[in-house]
Design a protein that fits this description.
Blueprint: H1 2-19, E1 46-49, E2 57-58, E3 67-71, E4 76-79, E5 87-92, E6 96-103, E7 107-111, E8 115-116, E9 122-124, E10 129-135, E11 141-146, E12 149-151, E13 154-155, E14 159-164, E15 168-169, E16 184-187, E17 194-197, E18 204-208, E19 216-223, E20 226-231, E21 236-242, E22 246-247, E23 277-280, E24 285-288, E25 291-296, E26 300-308, E27 312-318, E28 323-330, E29 334-338
Length: about 375
């Protein structure tokens, strides 16, 4: 999965930093020369995290600010700043409360009604996630970014258009919301990239990626060897394709999940790193580059990545599927449940850690 590859890359960067003396706990502050303003008044204050690959939470808005964590789609966030350098500061509540900077491409809302994203060939069903870019010039419209989902970690786009503000929210819609138009399931030719057009013989819209067996599409109209189709599992891409399509002989198969399932009682994230596995005490603070970035509201899980002087342990920590972070926690907050901890150093014991300075934390982190 692309998610695990991205996670491994983040781990490697962390290891390289540790060799240079600047791990998750190193005092390497990032230069933040420009301060972001308050959250825009014409934006929704509460939004959710949209789909994407790789880290979603950063220590700052600067381009070189380190990545500190991952957020799964659907996690609710509260905007804490105006957008700056393509990121926005958010507060994440929940079992692992944290605050950080998220790429604008990952800030999203749920569609409450079906409809086309104006200016694109993308179509939303109730419950689809769409990126938020800010109010459009036309009153009552929101600029949005859509990545039609082809299953698993496969997306096409992005496409930028507008959608009614009143049809977007920070929660899934009611169960009785009207769905998309039904149609017949067909498969595209296997192993081929298939162009999609806005109309028969018209301008190209996108290329549908190859797959084996061929990608399934919903046929809504047929004109000779041209087929009007809806591709994806929501958000969708609509248009016309040409060629030999094969009937599925039944309903479309379920897609590979966007978010992999967890393994037993452990969060999915714990399977993406190696190292001793610990339980982490509720109330533990997670630190990164000398500052507290999160607090566990309940008992969590952690993979040990390394040890530092002063009784601090470099970990990859999560409580549930929503959030996973890289940072330092006190050794006495961990209880080993799997694997072997590193042997004690033969040298003199490390000095006791200096008391942490008191920090003014947001109420959600207290």
């Amino acid at each position: 999965m692309a998610l695990s590859l991205a996670l491994a890359g983040c781990r490697r960067r962390g290891a390289e930093e540790t060799e240079e003396g600047a791990s998750a706990g190193g005092a390497t502050p990032q230069a933040e020369e420009v301060e972001a303003g308050p959250p825009p008044e014409d934006w929704p204050r509460i939004l959710v995290v949209g789909p994407g690959v790789g880290p979603a939470l950063y220590l700052g808005h600067a381009e070189n600010a380190p990545a500190v964590g991952y957020l799964n789609p659907g996690v609710r966030v509260r905007l804490e700043s105006a957008p700056l350098n393509g990121r926005v500061e958010v507060l994440v509540a929940g079992a692992l409360a944290t605050k950080g900077w998220v790429p604008l491409s990952r800030v999203a809302a749920y569609a409450q009604h079906r409809g086309r994203v104006e200016g694109t060939r993308a179509y939303l069903a109730p419950g689809d996630l769409v990126g938020i870019l800010g109010p459009a010039e036309d009153e009552g419209q929101m600029r949005v970014e859509v990545r039609p989902w082809m299953g698993g970690a496969s997306f096409v786009g992005p496409f930028v258009g507008t959608f009614p503000m009143e049809h977007l929210a920070d929660h899934p819609p009611e169960d009785d919301a009207e769905g998309v138009t039904p149609g017949d399931c067909y498969r595209l030719p296997a192993g081929q990239t298939v162009p999609m057009y806005e109309r028969p013989g018209g301008e190209p819209v996108a290329n549908l990626p190859p797959s084996d067996p061929g990608m399934t599409v919903t046929v809504l109209r047929a004109r000779g060897d041209w087929y009007g189709v809806r591709a994806g599992f929501g958000p969708y891409l609509t248009g016309y394709v040409q060629g030999n399509l094969t009937a599925c002989g039944g309903d479309a198969p379920a897609p590979e999940p966007m978010v992999p399932a967890s393994d037993g009682d452990r969060p999915y994230w714990m399977g993406q790193e190696s190292g001793p596995l610990h339980r982490v005490a509720a109330g533990t603070r997670v630190r990164f580059h000398g500052r507290t970035i999160a607090r566990l509201r309940s008992q969590g899980w952690a993979r040990e990545l390394g040890r530092q002087d002063g009784g601090m342990v470099d970990v990859f920590v999560a409580v549930d599927e929503d959030v996973a972070l890289r940072g330092l926690v006190p050794e006495d907050s961990l209880t080993l449940v799997e694997g072997a901890s590193p042997a004690a150093a033969e040298s003199a014991p490390a000095p006791a850690p200096e008391p942490e300075p008191e920090e003014d934390l947001p109420p959600e982190l207290q």
